[in-house]
Structure formats: structure tokens, C-alpha cells
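Work Package 4 report. The design task specified in the project plan requires that, given a folded chain encoded as C-alpha cells, an amino acid be chosen for each position. We show below one input record used in the internal validation round.
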């Protein structure tokens, strides 16, 4: 944090910060933030009312108890790479992002993506509500002597970074667990430099169909039918990670679902130009590395977006009906 203190701000009053005697101090108004195991504790409530704070607290508690996605005991950088690269999306992200850039991962959970992207000489700042998730992220970083990832406890509605600080902002699977996904997007895109890219992953209203059906089945049948979830029946995933996945997918205290059209509107309202999506709008096929994430694609029309989303339960069932939208700050 000391090396990049210029990009940080106080989450309470936006004042400049200094790191002193194992704590972070606000130079304007003296706000003080402790540091635990290298992680500055800079979470503050959003101040957007009781409803918002209640949701944040519930979600925070949930992820303190169930850090997501968690690590297997044997994980190391080699395994981190091979596991990350079983996801075409993560591999493409890593292949396409340049070196020596500053990336913010909002809602980084246990830091797999942040640690993975930092291996190729990128400075990755991972932030999350959940201190227990961040401790696991930082533990992996320390155990494997990773130098370019760092972790901070932060509420995305009260950023600890100044505007225009990052080349890339990634926010995967997070905004749909907040009280207002659009407001969340507005906050995090302020942190992007002009021309920088935002990558957001959200649950899709149509793509989530099979998960919603399975949720009802699991409620009625208990654990005997867990094999109908493609992730839970995998042989290469440890028990703890399966338990974490189950809770995240079927017992989450708060989730919302969204559509391509909705996010396109949000992009327009926040000065973001649409670049591409996964799945690609108008294409009925899974992501392959022939596609390029950061090359401009068509945003389609109401009909092509609708058809693409209708196919999602069949194409994205394994990921829980997830879609990704990439945009560039104008
Ligand atoms: C489903 S997990 C996703 C973790 C990681 N991005 C991934 O894809 O594996 C959602 C994460 O968002 C974090 N989160 C939720 N609301 C947040 C907020 N207001 N500010 C920061 N992080 C938040 C949670 O603590 C949790 O770690």
C-alpha cells in the first residue's frame, strides 16, 4: 500500500492517506484503519439507509462464514494456473490483458483471479467485504511469495481508491449480491481510467432457470439429489469447495438476476461503451478462444439478445447461469 499510496483515499471523507505504525491514517480528518495480517480493514457502511446496510451486513456475514470459492489444501501457483485455465474466460483474460497494468478486482473473494492475473507482471488490488476470504487470499499470496497482488477490506459503495486509478476493473459475481447492482457499477467505474475496461459478471434472469429449479428440488429432497448440480457431481473438486459452492448457489442471503438489455442501459448511463459479452450476443455457441474478449462486438437487438439468453440455461448451466459484459470507459 505504501508504494501506491497516491491512488488511495479515505472511504469516509475521501481524504489522502498515510500508512503509519501498522495502521492507515486519514491525513484530513484522522480516521484510523487497523491492518490485520497485511490487510487494511477499510470497510465502512454505504450510508444509503437501513435497507442497504441490512443487505450488506447479511451478505458480509454469509461470506465471513463461507469464504468463496476457497482453496484446496494442495493448491500452489502451478495448480492455480491449471485450474484457472480450465475456465476459457480466465485464460482469455490472462492472455489478452497487457503486462504492467493496474487491475482492481472488486469482490475478489478468496483471491484466485487476483493472484492468477498477478503472476504475469500485473499489479492486482483485490478488495472484498469478507475479511476471512481476504485472509485466505493473502495466505496463498504469502505462501507462494507472490509480489504483485494485494488485498484490502472494502465496501464497493465506499471505495478506498481515487477516481481514474485503474486500467481494468473486474467484478465477477458480486453486484447481484448488493442492494443496488446499478449503483454498484456506477461506483466501481468511477475508479477506471478513461479508455479503461470494466468486466462484470452477473446472474442472468433466463440463465438461472435450472439453478432456480434445483433450489426447489433440494429444498424438498435434502442432499440426496445433489448430483443433479454439474459442479457438485465433479470428482476433481474437494468437499469443502463443493459445500461452499452449494451454499453460495442455493442458500445465499441475497441475489438478483439481470439481462443484457439492462446492463447495456447501465453502460449507457455511466459513460461506458459496450465491447463484448459472454455468451456473445447473437451466437449460440459456448465461448472459445477464437473469440477475443476485448475486441468490439455487436450488442445485437432486442430479439437477438432474447434468443441468446433463452439458450443460456443449456450453455451456462455449469456456471450457474452467469453472463459477462465488458465495456470501455469513454
Ligand atoms: C460469489 S462471491 C464471488 C467471488 C469471486 N469474485 C469469484 O468470482 O470467485 C461474491 C463476493 O462478493 C463480495 N461482496 C459482496 N458485496 C460486496 C460489497 N458491497 N463490497 C465488496 N465486496 C462485496 C462477497 O464478500 C463475496 O466474496
Amino acid at each position: 500500500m505504501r508504494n501506491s499510496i497516491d491512488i488511495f483515499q479515505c472511504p469516509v471523507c475521501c481524504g489522502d492517506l498515510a500508512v503509519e505504525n501498522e495502521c492507515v491514517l486519514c491525513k484530513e480528518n484522522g480516521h484510523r484503519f487497523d491492518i490485520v495480517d497485511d490487510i487494511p480493514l477499510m470497510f465502512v457502511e454505504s450510508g444509503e439507509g437501513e435497507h442497504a446496510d441490512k443487505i450488506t451486513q447479511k451478505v458480509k456475514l454469509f461470506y465471513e462464514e463461507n469464504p468463496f470459492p476457497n482453496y484446496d489444501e494442495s493448491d500452489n501457483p502451478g495448480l492455480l494456473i491449471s485450474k484457472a485455465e480450465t475456465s476459457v474466460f480466465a485464460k482469455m483474460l490472462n492472455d489478452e490483458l497487457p503486462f504492467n497494468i493496474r487491475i482492481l478486482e472488486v469482490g475478489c473473494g478468496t483471491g484466485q483471479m487476483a493472484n492468477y492475473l498477478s503472476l504475469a507482471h500485473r499489479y492486482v488490488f483485490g478488495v472484498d467485504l469478507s475479511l476471512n476470504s481476504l485472509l485466505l487470499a493473502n495466505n496463498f499470496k504469502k505462501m507462494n511469495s507472490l509480489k504483485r497482488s494485494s488485498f484490502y477490506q472494502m465496501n464497493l459503495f465506499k471505495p478506498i481508491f481515487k477516481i481514474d486509478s485503474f486500467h481494468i476493473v473486474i467484478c465477477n459475481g458480486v453486484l447481484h449480491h448488493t442492494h443496488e447492482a446499478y449503483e454498484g457499477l456506477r461506483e466501481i467505474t468511477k475508479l477506471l481510467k478513461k479508455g479503461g475496461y470494466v468486466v462484470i459478471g452477473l446472474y442472468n434472469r433466463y440463465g438461472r432457470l435450472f439453478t432456480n429449479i434445483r433450489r426447489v428440488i433440494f429444498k424438498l429432497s435434502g442432499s440426496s439429489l445433489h448430483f443433479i448440480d454439474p459442479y457438485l457431481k465433479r470428482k476433481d473438486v474437494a468437499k469443502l469447495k463443493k459445500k461452499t459452492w452449494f451454499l453460495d448457489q442455493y442458500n445465499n442471503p441475497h441475489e438478483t438476476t439481470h439481462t443484457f438489455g439492462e446492463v447495456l442501459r447501465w453502460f449507457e448511463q455511466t459513460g461506458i461503451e459496450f465491447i463484448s459479452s459472454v455468451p456473445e450476443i447473437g451466437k449460440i455457441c459456448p465461448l472459445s478462444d477464437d473469440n477475443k474478449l476485448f475486441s468490439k462486438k455487436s450488442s445485437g437487438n432486442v430479439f437477438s439478445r432474447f434468443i441468446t439468453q433463452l439458450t443460456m440455461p443449456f450453455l451456462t448451466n455449469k456456471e450457474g447461469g452467469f453472463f459477462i459484459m465488458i465495456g470501455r470507459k469513454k
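Residues 264 and 274 are 7 Å apart (CA to CA). Validation will be extended to a larger panel in the next phase.
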